Amino acid sequence: MQLLLIHSDYIEYEVKKSTPVAEKIEESFKQGRLEEALTAFMAVESFDEADPQQVVERAVAEIEKVAVQVKAESVMVYPYAHLSSDLSSPKVAVSVLKSIEKELSGKYNVMRAPFGWYKAFSISCKGHPLSELSRTIRPEESATCGEAVVVEEKKDEVVSEALKAESTAKSYWRILTPDGELHEAEGFDFTGYDNLKKFVDYEITKNRNIDKAPPHVELMRRLEIADYEPGSDSGNMRFYPKGRLMKSLIENFVLDESAKIGAMEVETPLMYDMNHPTLKKYLDRFPARQYSIESDKRHMFLRFAACFGQFLMNHDMTISYRHLPLKMIELTRYSFRKEQRGELVGLRRLRAFTMPDMHTLCPDMEGSVSQFGEQYSMCIDTLNKIGIDVSDFEVAIRFTRDFYEGNKDFITDLARKVDKPVLVEMWDTRFFYFVLKFEFNFVDATAKASALSTVQIDVENAERYDINYTDSNGEMQHPVVLHCCPSGAIERCIYALLEKAAMDTEAGKVPNFPVWLSPTQVRVIPIAERHMGFANEVADALQCRVDIDDREETVGKKIRDAGREWVPYVAVIGDSEVESGNVNVTIRAESEPKKPKKVEMTAEELNERVLSEIGDMPYRSLPLAKLLSMRPKFL
RNA sequence: GCCGUCGUGGCUUAGUGGUAUAGCGGCUGAUUCGUAAUCAGCAGGCCGGGGGUUCAAGUCCCCCCGACGGCUCCA
Description:
Largest sheet: 10 strands, mixed
Oligomer: single chain
Helix content: 25-40%
CATH architecture of the largest domain: 2-Layer Sandwich
Strand content: 25-35%
Subcellular location: Cytoplasm
Protein name: Threonine--tRNA ligase
Distance between the termini: 47 Å
Number of helices: 18
Pfam family, one: tRNA-Thr_ED
CATH superfamily of the largest domain: Bira Bifunctional Protein, Domain 2
Organism: Methanococcoides vulcani
Shape: elongated
Mean pLDDT: 86
Number of strands: 29
Family: Belongs to the class-II aminoacyl-tRNA synthetase family. Archaea-specific ThrRS editing domain subfamily.
């Protein structure tokens, strides 16, 4: 059943003409009017025929719930077929409508508009936030026929209670400086903190005047990293070999870093039962929209993080206080969030994305706060090594007033660690499952902010999922849970690197990737065919991702192409190199536009230099042909 | 999801009612070349999809899809 509830000053109707399915009615029924009424427009659907009684009960419950909220004493039951494209038989519909009328009539002043008639009506909607609501009601266990798996959007289920709650949440915005002072965000002197200013504007005033597409969209395609996939849903990207390589390197890096602090890597399912009682409640506390899937008789949703899987695993584990803090991580490929259409842009915001999701079980609040501090530092370090410096992101710290009162010094320390002012958002009451969180927000070339790393202290889910550990007295306790995404979404890291490079270009610098992430680390350019032998020797002497531009092109063309690909080291080989045994290397990181930095060195020196720049960072071999002449173009 | 703009060969793009432009890329040939585009030729398009108006539609109208911008929203 589709329900549309409108709280109205009045509703009135008058029948005009009967349709073939019209119910027979008396003269007095042909027009009606109710003042101060909750009008329930409804369409009974084919699904409802499976269990009409249950649909009646649930519809009545929904109507009553809203009637109580808006303090309505009158209810207009109004059949409205246009709410659905899959209607029930008229017979069932009339009986459902009559039952609803009957159920409500004891408690409310109820009127029902006749079924199956064209009616003129006028309604005056009150327009307050609760005055217009829609609901979808389906009998439990309703099976759809046709295909085995049908992906469908259910409007009512994608708006979680947390999303609704947020619209009413009262936020207090402050700027916290490293000296521990809380300043009003309005009127703060942002001199020297341009990006913080942009971030604060983005968060608070929501003032955005941008007329251009973010530059990374063109770059991600030109550099053959990622692209839109028209054959999928929006926000589901394809990644070409270079993009997959970069993702893979960052993924491995984050996993390595979390292994170093003792996180256990696990893998959990991508889809879950919508009607699982624990999950249902969690869905309502998480501010995100889901993809949903009909699979046989079950209604599934795609995960938007690894929380479910890990919490369900934690629930079944036997855990002692000796095991705490206990860390688990999953690199989710993918997490799915059905973001609104207009929010999707390039790699900044996706509907399917790769996110490292780590959870830490801590014995108590004190333990969780200390872990929070450690993970805060770890996140700074992680982004830094990926190539996103403290100066590239802005910190937001969000907490409840209670938490702040008890932990002022700790919060100040967070600002001190980054040694710059940070944005603070404080709530009087806790709307979400956490009492404290931070995010590192990247501010891009179009002054838009998006979150990378985040850690949250969760005080709800251990209980909800019934996760327990045994304390030193042998008593069962619920741990405090930390959520941590050390790097942010991997795609978003690439977005940040591309945007950062675009800003460098804008500032008159040569754009770069960190060497460990560059798909090609060294390009060897032989001038003529006779230099291929030595070119191969040089390439063989290098223990990194090296390729050879053996195409029949001029040197100028090959240099230009290497530059457009942001290759960090370009070694040109001609007669004099063959003779000297050295190579002539253009070092991109030390070059300026139109002023390439060229150094003559041996292949061994070049190799050492590249290896030292890769350092401890992950390495994978080149996923493309070594010879450029053997490479297809992806676009 | 709502409002607006846009959608032409693999890519970028000209074309506002009358036989569909060009560059890049690809292929063929010539060139074997010293640091940001060597020259010539060839192939490749039912102009996002569907419907309508018209003698005639890439061009005008309607619906849908997608991208971008805004609103909204955001881990």
